[in-house]
Specification:
179 residues, 41% helix
Length: 179
């Protein structure tokens, strides 16, 4: 005892409050990082799904050389523009292995299946195939002499705040096609 006072060890109330505040900041930061990681994972999965959809379309186009040899005005692939917001497209005639389809009917069947996949996987999405030598960030197609045939895929996420109306996020140059 020092002059009648007891000396007791421990923490003051202010020290405890500061420690709790620091711990709360750490927990809040970890929660924010977890939310960001989940959002990034969802965006990466959506991008991978989009690449698969565009690759499927490119393979179907490559597998139908007679349709790709048609001029753009008669090539169903070169006129494809579908918005998932307008709902599922009309079903095309079945062109599976036992179906008797010409090149244009096969192209229409392929496009109907791709459009159905777009509606199912990208509810706010749009897919457009056109000749474009312009910027990949716009839906408008700047067709010109020698312009490549490209597929553009875009969608809106529920968290989008960009205000670009679902501008194309993926662009794939497609093989062949008569100019």
């Amino acid at each position: 005892m020092d002059g009648g006072r007891l000396s007791v060890g421990g923490f003051t109330l202010v020290e405890v409050l500061v420690a709790l505040f620091v711990a709360a900041l750490g927990i809040a930061g970890a929660c924010a990082l977890q939310t960001l990681a989940l959002r990034s994972q969802q965006e990466a999965a959506r991008l991978a799904d989009g690449v698969r959809l565009l690759s499927t379309l490119a393979e179907r186009m490559r597998a139908n050389p007679p349709a790709m040899a048609l001029p753009d005005g008669g090539n169903p692939y070169a006129q494809f523009d579908v918005d998932a917001g307008s709902g599922a497209p009309d079903a095309a005639a079945s062109c599976f292995a036992d179906g008797d389809c010409d090149a244009v009917q096969l192209a229409e069947f392929d496009l109907a299946e791709v459009a159905q996949a777009l509606v199912e996987r990208f509810p706010g999405g749009r897919l457009c195939v056109c000749r474009d030598a312009g910027a990949a960030t716009a839906w408008a197609c700047a067709a010109g002499p020698g312009a490549p045939l490209v597929a553009k895929l875009g969608w809106r996420e529920s968290s989008d705040r960009r205000g670009d109306g679902g501008a194309p996020r993926l662009l794939l140059a497609l093989p062949g096609g008569a100019p």
